[in-house]
Design a protein that fits this description.
single chain; alpha+beta; Sufe protein. Chain: A
Length: 142
């Protein structure tokens, strides 16, 4: 009886894990918001030289709020899914709110175990976004 319960719980975890993996692959194969934003308020590019991930984020900002976010880039499924998911999540968010995002939010959004070796891949999106906002705040016109 106990083994059946453990097996059933294990099967549920495997199905959930598989669902999240499929979600990551879907975002990788069919990224959302992957385009150059011609009227971007700002853009910022970051690279992960360890694995070749390359992400440029384009942001349209009004009243210290993101009204549109897109990206261009190449790299592994995790980095590309992460930036695609993040561009969806940040619409209508205040810049301060985005700057205060933690890595745990990105990892939760991805929904899969990220090994220490892939952590930079997963967090490149957040790093790029925060640096873009910092660049925006430091520009003389603000």
């Amino acid at each position: 009886m106990m083994n059946e319960q453990v097996n059933a719980e294990s099967e549920e975890v495997n199905q959930e894990d598989q669902m999240y993996r499929e979600n990551i692959l879907d975002y990788y194969k069919h990224p959302r918001n992957k385009e150059v934003l011609p009227n971007a308020t700002l853009l910022h590019r970051e690279l992960n030289p360890l694995c070749g991930d390359d992400v440029t984020v384009y942001l349209q900002i009004e009243n210290n709020k993101i009204i549109r976010a897109t990206f261009m880039g190449t790299g592994c499924a995790i980095s590309q899914a992460s930036i695609s998911l993040l561009t969806e999540k940040i619409i209508e968010k205040k810049l301060e709110e985005i700057k205060n995002m933690k890595k745990e939010e990105i990892l939760e959004m991805l929904g899969i175990f990220i090994s220490p070796g892939r952590m930079k891949c997963a967090l490149l999106s957040l790093k790029t976004l925060i640096k873009a906002i910092e660049k925006h705040e430091q520009s003389p016109k603000n």
